[in-house]
Design a protein that fits this description.
By secondary structure, the chain is α/β, with parallel strands linked by helices. The chain has one domain: Rossmann fold, CATH 3.40.50.1970. 45% of the residues lie in helices and 15% in strands. It has a five-stranded parallel β-sheet with strand order 2-1-3-4-5, with helices on both faces. Helix 1 links the parallel strand 1 and strand 2. Helix 1 runs parallel beside helix 5, helix 2 crosses helix 3 and helix 5 packs across helix 6. It is globular and about 50 Å long. The termini are far apart. Bound molecules: 5-O-phosphono-beta-D-ribofuranose. 5-O-phosphono-beta-D-ribofuranose binds next to strand 3. GO terms for molecular function: 5-(carboxyamino)imidazole ribonucleotide mutase activity. Pfam families: AIRC (PF00731).
Length: 168
């Protein structure tokens, strides 16, 4: 668990402990931006009651975004979105059988009325979900806006400082 002392603004949830290899990239980015967050395993299929409880209490507990990662029959993000209006950011975890295409399609194809913002399959999706959550928070949290701007500036400088791919 990476809960901080401050009340979490973002929930990072996943269907199984086996999703952590991917979802740690969301947590690491949030940490780097100084965003208080919590990390939980909540399964749509194995712990449906816990999922409903988590989603039902999310807004009241102060969560402003929920990053939800799952693989295979990835119902977690959509089911959370069905029980809360807190923005849900879905991360398709790369599955063993179908490389995450199953996860992607089952997260992205929501019916009109219950949106889930869907990100790329795997590590990049988890990282970008965290950065997107930061963008959402930046509107009301100037310290997050500053951290995000600084990250973007560093990223740009790193590319510019090493733009010859033949040089390590
Ligand atoms: C999904 O099933 C999880 O999100 C995970 O990606 C996948 C496999 O889970 P395990 O069998 O590894 O627990 O619910």
């Amino acid at each position: 668990m990476t809960d901080t002392a401050r009340a979490p603004l973002v929930g990072v949830v996943m269907g199984s402990r086996s999703d952590w290899d991917t979802m740690q990239h969301a947590s690491t980015r949030l940490e780097a931006l100084g965003i208080a967050h919590e990390v939980r395993v909540v399964s749509a299929h194995r712990t449906p009651d816990a999922l409903f409880e988590y989603a039902g209490e999310a807004a009241g507990r102060g969560l402003r975004a929920i990053i939800a990662g799952a693989g295979g029959a990835a119902h977690l993000p959509g089911m959370i979105a069905s029980k809360t209006t807190v923005p849900v950011l879905g991360v398709p975890v790369k599955s063993r059988a179908l490389n995450g295409l199953d996860s992607l399609l089952s997260i992205v194809q929501m019916p009109a009325g219950v949106p889930v913002a869907t990100f790329a399959i795997g590590d990049a999706g988890a990282a970008n979900a965290a950065l997107f959550a930061a963008s959402l928070l930046a509107v009301d949290h100037p310290e997050v806006a500053r951290a995000l701007d600084a990250f973007r500036a560093r990223q740009t400088a790193e590319v510019a400082a090493n733009d010859d791919p033949r040089i390590e």
